[in-house]
């Protein structure tokens, strides 16, 4: 555009010189000469005006030239204040956010991630996530994640939680299938340990019982009695022993919730378990498994979206789109978050813009502004050349006519 504007100015100069050499051989020559002369004046005037914005014309320190370099700091402050007044005030952000359906956009993206080019957005986001995960210090980040998890486990008061869980399970009868399963396998347990039971009876029997062989009869009676007790408890839900077990479990649940001594013992056991090397190794593996899963999903989003995760996300997207209450809640949260960010960080953003521009050198500011609007400014030179020529043509015509 600079070459075009300058070329027009040069052409007008050549035309003017040519008409001066040709002389008044025809009345039309005067009109051409007037057009070329006025066009040069208009083109030169607009060249000076455009150039004066960015630098001194021809390097001469003419007053009120190089306007942008000289006023760099004031321009930065004006731009920052413009951003603050028109974009970063809570009222402006709130008014704008009322027109934005954040929940609808999220729902559509999750429900139909490949529509309207959002597949490229998803792929780009996936590659960015993968690059971020791979660039992070695995050892330090994994250690931080492990430390946070271990610290959380140590601070967790697990005894009341176990007590509440046991109470809820017993209230709904969810412990009964477990007890039934244990009782149904009791006969197998007794049979597999029959020799141990017989040896225990033999060791505790007197010498007379062992000499007469009655210890064997006692052992048989004990085994038969244990089997009968197990079968009776399995067949009768209201068996006294089962009811006694329920009472013991309820007592345990209450102690877990209310007994400080029991809570200390349980938490001490929990801390010993967490500090166990095997548990520490397992916690270490959790980070690696989670990181690997995230990387696989990030590198192959189509595969991740095709599984259960994708189905869950699509279902979530449909729910967000169809549930008006949920959409209003999400949009209200997004609006409050944006307004809060503007209120909390608006001044900081404005200060950042102002200080960044103040830190640029004059040549850098000039280059950036000229790159942004320079093309349109060259049109000003072109228009100035043409308009100047037309004005000169009109003045010459009036002069001839009058």
What does the largest sheet look like?
Answer: none
What is the radius of gyration computed over CA atoms, rounded to a whole number of angstroms? 44 Å
Secondary-structure element sequence? HHHHHHHHHHHHHHHHHHHHH
Q: Calculate the mean pLDDT score and round it.
A: 78
Envelope shape: rod-shaped
Helix fraction by DSSP (H/I, runs of at least 4) = over 70%
Low-confidence stretches: none
Molecular structure report:
The protein has 21 helices and no strands. Helix 1 runs parallel beside helix 21. It has 402 residues and is mainly α. Helix content is 86%, strand content 0%. The protein has helices at 2-22, 27-54, 67-70, 72-86, 90-97, 102-111, 118-135, 138-155, 158-171, 176-184, 186-192, 194-204, 207-212, 214-235, 240-258, 260-275, 277-299, 301-306, 308-322, 324-359, 362-401. The mean pLDDT is 78. Among the domains are: 2-70 and 361-401, no CATH class; 138-275, no CATH class. The longest helix has 40 residues, at 362-401.
Provide key terms for this protein.
single chain, 402 residues, mainly alpha, 21 helices, 86% helix
In short:
The chain has helices at residues 2-22, 27-54, 67-70, 72-86, 90-97, 102-111, 118-135, 138-155, 158-171, 176-184, 186-192, 194-204, 207-212, 214-235, 240-258, 260-275, 277-299, 301-306, 308-322, 324-359, 362-401.
């Amino acid at each position: 555009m600079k070459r075009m504007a300058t070329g027009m100015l040069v052409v007008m100069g050549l035309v003017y010189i040519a008409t001066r050499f040709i002389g008044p051989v025809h009345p039309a020559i005067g009109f051409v000469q007037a057009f070329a002369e006025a066009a040069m004046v208009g083109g030169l005037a607009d060249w000076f005006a455009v150039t004066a914005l960015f630098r001194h014309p021809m390097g001469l320190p003419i007053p009120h030239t190089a306007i942008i370099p000289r006023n760099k700091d004031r321009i930065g402050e004006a731009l920052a204040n413009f951003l603050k007044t028109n974009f970063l005030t809570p009222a402006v952000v709130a008014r704008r956010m009322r027109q934005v359906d954040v929940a609808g956009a999220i729902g559509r993206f999750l429900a139909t991630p490949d529509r309207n080019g959002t597949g490229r957005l998803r792929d780009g986001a996936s590659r960015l996530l993968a690059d971020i995960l791979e660039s992070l210090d695995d050892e330090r980040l994994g250690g931080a994640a492990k430390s946070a998890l271990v610290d959380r486990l140590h601070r967790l008061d697990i005894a009341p939680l176990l007590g509440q869980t046991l109470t809820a399970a017993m209230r709904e009868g969810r412990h009964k299938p477990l007890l039934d399963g244990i009782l149904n396998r009791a006969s197998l347990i007794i049979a597999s340990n029959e020799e141990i039971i017989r040896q225990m009876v033999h060791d505790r029997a007197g010498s007379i019982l062992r000499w007469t062989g009655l210890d064997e009869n006692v052992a048989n009676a004990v085994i038969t009695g244990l089997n009968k007790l197990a079968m009776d408890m399995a067949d009768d839900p209201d068996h006294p022993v089962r009811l006694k077990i329920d009472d013991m479990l309820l007592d345990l649940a209450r102690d877990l919730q209310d007994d400080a001594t029991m809570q200390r013992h349980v938490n001490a056991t929990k801390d010993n378990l967490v500090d166990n090397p095997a548990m520490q190794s397992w916690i270490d593996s959790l980070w690696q498994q989670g990181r690997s899963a995230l990387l696989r999903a990030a590198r192959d989003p189509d595969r991740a979206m095709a599984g259960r995760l994708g189905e869950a996300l699509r279902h979530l997207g449909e729910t967000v789109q169809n549930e008006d209450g949920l959409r209003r809640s999400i949009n209200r949260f997004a609006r409050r978050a944006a307004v809060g960010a503007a209120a909390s960080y608006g001044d900081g953003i404005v200060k950042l813009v102002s200080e960044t521009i103040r830190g640029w050198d004059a040549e850098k500011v000039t280059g950036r502004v000229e790159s942004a609007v320079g093309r349109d400014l060259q049109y000003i030179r072109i228009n100035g050349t043409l308009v100047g020529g037309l004005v000169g043509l009109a003045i010459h015509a009036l002069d001839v006519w009058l």
